[in-house]
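Please check our next protein.
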Amino acid sequence: MKRSKELLEKRKDFVIEYVKRNQSKQMKVIVTELTEMLFLSERTIYNIILQA
């Protein structure tokens, strides 16, 4: 369980940092890139961003 929580935190940190680095792009483009990189749904990525 601990490992899973660590991975979730790393994923959350990666998404937040990626959004910060690519602020000049539209959010839809950023989310699409993240879905392709991380194999996550758009909804999951939006939830991570909203929780930050």
In short: The chain has three helices and no strands. The first helix runs from residue 2 to 21. The radius of gyration is 11 Å.
